[in-house]
Amino acid sequence: MPPERDPDLVLCRRAASGDRGAFALLVSAHGNRLRGFLAHVAGADLADELAQAAFVKAWQALPGFRGEARFSSWLCGIGWRCFIDHARRERSEARRREGAASLGDPAEPAGQADRIDLQRALDRLDAVERAALVLCEGHGWSHGEAAAILRLPLGTLKGTVQRAKRKCRDFLGVTA
Amino acid sequence: MDEAGFEALLKRELAPSEAPAESGFVARVDRAVAEADLYRRTRRRILRQLGSEGLAVGAVGASLAFVTQVPDVREALTQAPGLLSIAGLLLLLFWLLVHPTSLRAPRRAG
């Protein structure tokens, strides 16, 4: 799609010049997607807080956004870095307290048994494995886009997705 | 569960919601953005003010140091040492009178 026809880019340009109404439209359009990603990675309890922080950072960084990547992937990258910063803070606080502060309890799964099992399988993955799996298998990003979002080399990203899927398969007892 | 079922489960459960975010979330983000903007503007204003007032204080100090090098002034100061304190107090009073903005709370932008 040509940049001038990309509705997100038009809204981004308006928001970058200080139009908060245009930014609210971007928040409305991309809020649930970002919260969904962060809920899988950080847990449902933290997803809203992190998504809000990511949107504030995006607002401040918008004047520098040139539209080379899609707004949604750029935003997702900011959300991921908010999560990384949060995890780092949590770790240092936990070290200070000398206690084990687990990062964001996973969302309480509701619904059918498959979903509960998948949630348990996801809980066993590292944050980066969960993020790579959610981005590539759920959100439909290409490996290249997911690697850019997570700031990983492409080969590392592919290996991470494969490892995450293998762990999930093993946990769920998937037969070939 | 077989491979096809596993792939379908992943796609179904990890898919993002395409529905627009609820208005409560959008309003919360808008408030957070407004607060972040206000904080940034206030911080920038305070830093700029500190910089300019620091320069002014430096200039006044340098001027005073220069003036006290004048032999007549130095002699007057040795005879009446309180003169420098009075001059300093007068300068401070003058600064407070012409710089009331430094004492005001920042204006909230709409």
Describe, in plain words, how this protein is organized in 3D:
The complex is a heterodimer of chains A (176) and B (110). Helix content of chain A is 73%, strand content 0%. Chain A has 176 residues and is an all-alpha fold. In chain A, helix 1 crosses helix 2, helix 2 (20-42) crosses helix 6 and helix 6 packs antiparallel against helix 7 (143-150). The radius of gyration of chain A is 17 Å and the shape is globular. The termini of chain A are far apart. Chain B has 110 residues and is mainly alpha-helical. Chain B has helices at 3-14, 23-67, 71-79, 82-98. The longest helix of chain B is centred in the middle third of the chain and has 45 residues, at 23-67. The model of chain B has no long low-confidence stretch (mean pLDDT 84).
Briefly say what this structure is.
The complex is a heterodimer of chains A (176) and B (110). Chain A has helices at 7-16, 20-42, 44-61, 71-97, 113-123, 127-138, 143-150, 154-172. By secondary structure, chain A is mainly α.
What's the mean pLDDT score of chain B?
A: 84
Estimate what percentage of residues of chain A fall within beta strands.
Answer: under 5%
Question: Whole-Å distance between the termini of chain B?
Answer: 57 Å
Which overall shape of chain A is indicated by the principal axes computed on the Cα atoms? globular
Gyration radius of chain A, in Å: 17 Å
What order do the SSEs of chain A take from the amino end to the carboxyl end, as H and E?
A: HHHHHHHH
Helix content of chain B: over 70%
Mean pLDDT of chain A: 86
Radius of gyration from the alpha-carbon trace of chain B, in angstroms: 31 Å
| Uncertain residue ranges of chain B | none
Overall strand count of chain A: 0
- Helix percentage of chain A: over 70%
Q: How much of the residues of chain B is beta strand, in percent? A: under 5%
Give the SSE string of chain B. HHHH
Amino- and carboxy-terminal Cα gap of chain A:
39 Å
Query: Structural class of the secondary elements of chain B?
Result: mainly alpha
Largest interface: pair, residues per side: A-B, 38 and 28 residues
Secondary structure tally, helices of chain A: 8
Largest sheet of chain B: none
